[in-house]
Write a structure and sequence with these properties.
This protein is mostly helical. It has four helices and no strands. The longest helix has 43 residues, at 2-44. It is elongated, with a radius of gyration of 28 Å.
Length: 101
C-alpha cells in the first residue's frame, strides 16, 4: 500500500515538473515571438530610399557611361543576377514545401 502511494506520488511530482518545464518553454517561445514581431514591425517602418524606389534599372541608368563600363567589366550585373536567382530559388523551395524550411 505504501509502495503504491509513493509510486503515485513520484509520478505526480514528475508530471508537475514536466508541466512546469512545458510552461517555461512555452513562455520563452511566446516572449521570443513577441520580440521578433516587434523587430519585424520596426524593420517595416524603415522607409525605402528615394534613389532605390525606381529599382536598380533607374539607378544604373542614371550613372555616368564610364562608371557603367567599369561596373559591367567587374561583373556586377552578373553577380546581381546570380544573387537574385538564388533568392528566387529559395522562395520557390519554401513555397513548394509549404513553408516548412
Amino acid at each position: 500500500m505504501l509502495a503504491d502511494f509513493t509510486a503515485w506520488l513520484l509520478k505526480l511530482i514528475a508530471k508537475l515538473f514536466t508541466a512546469v518545464w512545458d510552461f517555461v518553454t512555452d513562455l520563452f517561445i511566446s516572449i521570443l515571438g513577441t520580440v521578433l514581431d516587434a523587430f519585424t514591425a520596426l524593420i517595416a517602418l524603415i522607409p525605402i530610399p528615394g534613389w532605390l524606389s525606381g529599382g536598380l534599372a533607374s539607378t544604373f541608368g542614371a550613372m555616368d557611361p564610364g562608371i557603367i563600363y567599369v561596373v559591367s567589366q567587374c561583373g556586377i550585373p552578373a553577380a546581381l543576377l546570380i544573387v537574385g536567382g538564388g533568392y528566387a530559388f529559395r522562395m520557390l523551395r519554401k513555397f513548394f514545401t509549404l513553408f516548412q524550411w
